[in-house]
Amino acid sequence: MVKALPPEFYAPFLSDLAKERKPSPIRGLYPLEARPGVISLLAGKPNATTFPLTSVTLTSRSPIDPTHEITTKVHGQALADGLQYGPTAGLPALCEWVYGLQEREHGRKKGEGWRVSIGAGSQDVIFKAVMAMVNTGDSVLVECPVYAGVLPMFQSLHCDLIEVETDSQGIRSSSLRSILENWPELKPKPKVLYTVPYGCNPTGMTATLDRRQEVLALAREHNFIILEDDPYYYLYYGDSPRHPSYFALELEQPEVGRVLRFDSLSKILSSGIRIGFACGPEPLLAAIDMHTAVANLQTPSLTQTLTFALLDAWGYAGFAAHTAAVSSFYRAKRDVFAGALRRHLTGLAEWTDPEAGMFFWFKLLLGSDDGNGEEGDSESIIRTKAYERGVLALPGTVFLPRGGKTAYVRAAFSLLDEDQVEEAVKRLKETILEARQS
Ligand code: PMP
Questions:
Q1: How much is the pTM?
Q2: 3-state secondary structure of 60
C-alpha cells in the first residue's frame, strides 16, 4: 500500500498567492450539480442545442499499421461535452485516460496520493505550479543550463535562482547536495527544484538512475518538491530500457508526494493541440486548478474531446506503437546530425550525443582562451556571424539562469532533412574557422 504525505504537509509549499485565492464561487459548486435529482440553476452555460456543430470526423494514421487510416466520428454526448464548459481540472474521460497511462508508464495508480490536471500544453500547468508554490524573492533550485521557457516565470518573481550543475549524466546530485549542505542557516531553504530529466532542453542529456535516486533522497532530506518537466520522455533513443521517472521512483520512498510531474502531448501528437498535464499531490493540483478557474476557466473542452477521441480509438497499445514510431523517427534524425557533427566539427566543437529529445548542445572550441581561463563565448559568433552565413542556432547564454558567458550552442535537429543538416553544420564549421582566425 502506498503511503502519501498528508494534505497539511503542503501548507508551507503553497505561495501566498495560492493561499489567498478564494475558490471560484460558481466553478466551486459545479460538483454539486452531479447529484441525481438536483435541478441546477447555477451556471450561465449556453444551451448546447444552439451550437451549430453536429459532428467532427477525425482521421488518423493507424499507429499499428501506418498504411491504414482510422476514422473516428465525434458526435452526440461526446461532442456536446466538447462544446460546453467542462470541469476545471480537465475533461473526465481524458483524465481517466491519463490515470491509465500513468499507471502503465510509471506504476502510479489512481487514488494513491495523486491526481491529474490538464493544461493548455505543459507550459500552462508549469506556470501555474510555479505561481502556486513560489513567492516573490524565494530561492529556487534550477538545473543549469535550464529550459529558457521557465526563466521568465522565476525572474518576474525576483527569485534567487540557485544553479545546480549538470553534465552528460544529467543533473549533478553532488552539486545539489553541496548547495543544500552549505545552505546559510538563516536563509529559508528552497522549496522547489526544476529539472528536465529526459533529453533536457537545452543539453539533450538524460539523468541516470543513480542521479535520480540521489536527487529524490535529497528532496526528502532537505524537504523540497521536484518539478519534473518531462516533455521528451517518449523521445528516448537509448538501447537499454528507459530509466524510471521521478514520479515512478518515488514509489520506492517511504512515502509519495514530493514529485510534481509535467507531461506534454506536444512532441508526440501535436504541439498546436495544446495538451499537457500535471500529476502530483492533491493540494498542489488544487492550487493549480484555482489559478485556472480564475485565469482561463479551463483548458478548451473541444481540444480535450478530440484528443481523447483519438487516443481512445488507438487504445494504449496504439499510443505505445505511435510513440515508439515517433521516437525512431527522431532517433534517425539524431544519428544524421551526429554524423554531420563528427564529419565537420571534430576538433572544432565538443559534444555528447543525446539519448533523448531534440537537441544537440555543443561547445565551440574557439582556441581563444581569454586569459582568465574562460572557455569563450558563443553569443556573437552564433547570433551574428553564423546567421550571416545563413544558419540560425541558439547561443547557450539564453539558458543560463544567472546569465554569463558560455561557449555552448543549442541546435535542434527535429526538422531538418539530411542535406539541410550537412549544409547547416558546414556553415557552422566555416563560422568557427573564421572566428578562430580573427
Ligand atoms: N518544457 C520543456 C523542457 C520544453 O522544451 C517545452 C517546449 N519547448 C515545454 C516545457 C512546453 O511544452 P508544451 O508545448 O507542452 O507547453
A1: 0.96
A2: strand
